Amino acid sequence: MKIYTEKDYGALSERAAGIIADFVKKNPKCVLGLATGSSPVGMYDLLGKMREEGKISFENTTTFNLDEYLGLAPENQQSYRFFMKKNFFDKINIDIKNTFFPSDFAPNYEDYDRKIEEGGGIDLQVLGIGRNGHIGFNEPGSDFLSKTREVKLAETTIKDNARFFDKIEDVPKTAATMGISTIMKAKKIILLANGKNKKEIIKKAFFGPVTLEVPASVLQRHKDVIVILDKEAASGL
Ligand code: F6R
Predict the structure, then answer these.
(1) Does the CB atom of residue 33 touch ligand 1 within 6 A?
(2) List of residues 6+ apart from 75 with CB closer than 8 A
(3) What was the pLDDT predicted at 59?
(4) Could you give the C-alpha distances from 43 to 38, 82, 112, 127, 176, in angstroms and in order?
(5) Catalytic residues, which ones?
(6) Quick one: CA torsion of 52, 47, 89, 202, rounded to 10 degrees?
């Protein structure tokens, strides 16, 4: 595991966008695993600018998103498909037919894992981390062998994500998520975390024991993980 500590969110986003851009330039037909949430927004924005300047092309790239709320229409502004369109897909030249979300496969979630495998597997997976250590929506206690499936969101996740909704009651209670084993099969993983509210979980996940109670700790067993932090998220190390 390689850990970068950047001076601020801008530098974190630049580091992440640089790694992804290099990767996509070398492997234009690559399969990317993508995350939503606040952490990768700056990175998506920079990649969009690189596309605008003609420095990169996503024409032959395929993407699989980590997760999606259940019970929200894709045009709902809080859906992750809407988030991805607004923050990334509309800014790049990807073929929208090559962008996939696990909720589209409900209830046959095993087809999502199969689709990923048929595409050659995920070459590079982008992750954020929840304050409770979740990756995707694999909440504490998730089996390390879990595959794509429907999950109940943890109370802490509902509280954290309420900031995007008018009121907490509007936050869906269930979601579809890649499983931990789905994520661990990615050939390369980049995890982004910023802000002081991530400081404790970063220490636990990457310097504590590997445990089901901290799902991200499983990444200690992956052979190619890059963690990119800002100073605040790294301040507990
Ligand atoms: C999002 C996802 C989540 C987030 C995590 C951190 O697709 O899978 O695991 O990465 O909740 O969210 P932010 O970046 O908003 O702090």
Answers:
(1) no
(2) 82
(3) 97
(4) 10, 17, 25, 12, 24
(5) 67, 132, 134, 139
(6) -170
